[in-house]
Batch of 3 targets.
Target 1
Amino acid sequence: MPMPALPPKNYKTPFASMIGHHVAIRVPDFEASKKWFVEKLDWRVLHEWPYGDLQLAYVGPATDDTFFVEILGGGDPQPKVIYDDVDASLVHAGYHHFCLTVDSVDDTVAELRRRGVTIIGEPFELESISRRLAFFSDPWGNLIELAQVIA
């Protein structure tokens, strides 16, 4: 079942200029997180800056200059729940994951496994949105979704 047609865009709203830019993740090890994105996902470190006692950086996909992950490091963050099952992760309120579109979920998961990345469950199809999906996590339990459009 394909996704329904999107409603028309509303250019009359005072928020018409809003578009997505980045999502932020809090990590206990700033340098290790940057290294993980670069070595495991082939992402680029785009910009770094301090904020109080924190260190921040934008990292972005190899070929995308429109979506970033902001890494928040430093200080003494509280530990978070680490999931090994997507369904178990759905019981808590709050931020859950961000999604990356790929040409092939299966090929991407195979390469992530080869690079030692933690895969959270096996790829599956969700017909209601015409997508093949998979989830993986960084070393600190931040979930990332992969999505492939299926016919």
Target 2
Amino acid sequence: MSLQRVTTHKELPKSADFRAWINVAMIVANYQFASEVLIRIVDDEESQSLNGQYRGKDYATNVLSFPSELPHEIAAAMTRAPLGDIIICAPVVMAEAKEQEKSLQSHWAHLTIHGVLHLLGYDHIDDDEAEQMEALEVQAMALLGYSNPYTCDAA
């Protein structure tokens, strides 16, 4: 796992936290291949720019996922193939955690897991896909000792 930070803030998770969250997401998704994930922590401005460029949305968002476009044949031959990049906007995460009355650590965990599941091909465009993805997120959070992130008492 690679971690890039645009901002330094005492409330940002440690690299070991991100590794644990990535590993749990892969476990619940039954993904068994050694992979690399790059996580980049950004500010509002960069998040808004990327969200506009790649999703056509003119606002900062909490998490963006960019799956690797490496051809399968090449990835399969690598010891640790790149799974993709996850961009997380620290100010949005912090504001959402406060607004939703969630612990900051659990919200970071949830959004990291959410991003990894997107890299693994899960989505929430239609109800069936959303239900499947949310169930995996809830399972991963429970394995980490966190509450269901989709309920009001998620702390």
Target 3
Amino acid sequence: MTIKLIAIGKTDNKELQSLIDDYTKRLSFYIKFLAEIIPDIKNVKNLSEEQQKQKEGELILNKLNATDVLILLDENGKQFDSVNFSEYLQKHMNAGMKQLVFVIGGPYGFSEDVYKKANGKLSLSKMTFSHQMIRLFFIEQLYRGFTILKNEPYHHR
């Protein structure tokens, strides 16, 4: 199985990007992981929130394969602790799917079309974080999940 993270807009903070790269490298020892960054939409000042979500939604949907399982990182999604998240990952791996895709949307969330296509929603916290921080937190939690599944000492119970 491959896990793919799709996110809108690049990470411009070098320190954050360095940490993202570190956890991405660590994660590669457990699973094939891809991060795909969709560039920020140009001229957003001329677009309403709905138009921006629609344009971002089209770009997100164009990155998907027909067989992908799509999970949105959304503030109204299901919350897990780290152990339960590792079990969630294991269930998806056991299901024999080819690619599990997680998406971090733009500043206004997702278009209705993206919500309709989604197979689920996941929330990392009730708090709001920057899109750049969520990338780091999510990739670290993926890494933590796999160390839990392998019974490695990174996660202390």
